[in-house]
Amino acid sequence: MNEQIAVADVATLGEALRQARKAQGLTQQDFADIVGVGVRFLSELERGKPTAEIGLVLQVLRDSGFELVLQRRTHRGPTLSGQGDVREDVEP
User: Fold this and answer.
1) 30 alpha-carbon distance from chain centroid
2) pLDDT for 23-32, tens place per residue?
3) Sign of the C-alpha dihedral, residues 54, 73, 7, 33?
């Protein structure tokens, strides 16, 4: 699976993980065991619980073959700096 998924909220992230799990034919228990989290946490994450612990979310993403990439949005809108989105090339 080499597709990009734009994630704007936890529900979208959870749905992407659920689809990836089901595509592999795994139950929540199997998947939770593989990525090292509890079934309850995984279930809540798949349902889009907004207070999921970020460290565990990142662990699930990493261990399930996803990579989290931050990218500035290309449309103009409010940002932390208050200057709108500015596209800049940033060296890693």
Assistant:
1) 19
2) 999 999 999 9
3) negative
The model's confidence at residue 15, banded by pLDDT at 50, 70 and 90, is very high
The residue count of the chain comes to: 92
Distance (Å, rounded) from C-alpha 1 to C-alpha 74?
25
Q: Which residues are within 8 A (CB) of 14 and not within 5 positions of it... i.e. 6 or more apart?
A: 45, 46, 47, 48, 49
Q: Which domains occur in the chain, in start order? A: 1-92 (1.10.260.40)
CB crowding 22-42: b at 16 or more within 10 Å, else e: eeeeeebeebbeebebeeebb
Model pLDDT for residues 49-85, shown as the tens digit of each residue: 999 999 999 999 998 888 888 888 776 666 665 554 4
Q: How far apart are CA 7 and CA 12, in angstroms?
A: 6
Task: Tell me if 68 sits within 8 A of 55, measured CB to CB.
Answer: no
